[in-house]
Amino acid sequence: MKAHHLSLAVVVTAFSAGCFAADAPAPAQAAMPSGTQEWIAYLADFTRNGDMLADPKKFLAALSVVSEPQFLLDATKAMMEPNLYLQSTASMMDPRAYGNFAKAMDPAVIAAWTTAMMDPQFLAATQTVVVDPNKLIRWVMAPLDPKLLALAANALNPNVYLRWASAPLDPRVMNMATAPVNPNWYGGWLGGMINPQSYGPTMAPLLSAPYGMQPIPMIPFPMPQQAR
After folding, report:
1. What is the pTM of this model?
2. Is the pLDDT of residue 88 over 90?
3. Which residues form the domain of 36?
4. Cβ(39)–Cβ(71) under 8 Å?
5. Quick one: which of 22, 176, 196 has its CA closest to 90?
6. Which residues contact 48 (CB under 8 A, 6 or more apart)?
7. CA angle 140, 145, 149 (to 5 degrees)
8. Total structural domains within the chain
9. Alpha-carbon distance 75 to 36, whole Å?
10. pLDDT tier at 199 (50, 70, 90 boundaries)?
């Protein structure tokens, strides 16, 4: 596992230094997940997993993790529990989910991916992640992993099915069911759509005042006087 993290760091660092060396300094971004469980929660969270598609470096890091047999085992175990589905569905209904994917329409993101796809270092780093000999050996040895046997035993565990049967009684299910009835929920989505910060670094300034979206002025109209 340490060797895997070391190789991932070397690949991402090499690609970052080569592909984005000429870029202007960007503002600090949220750190990438560090462990398999954090990656599972990150990919299932629709309020922030769009960063993986908006940044080639994060996509490369995600590809390195999801192509590991360890991730497949841990993700399968997490998918057998209702908690992951509840969290993922709640994040999908969160108004912040709009801005999560709206940033992918930014011209800067398209330019970054165009530059990456034409960069031999990015293609070489992707090939290194996919055809890593050590990773292929780990896939060959995956059927002998004790976690695979524990995963099969977990599928026969009656408590797993009891948790699924009791999932409709979870308060989060009630909150998600009543969200479409709440007018504030639609207001949150509308606010996310018109918020310039929901878009990328290029589109946000264009949509900001005084050149972009402006509030509609309220024109005072005289009230008709009632006849006496």
Report:
1. 0.74
2. yes
3. 2-22+31-198
4. yes
5. 176
6. 30, 42, 100
7. 125
8. 1
9. 8
10. confident
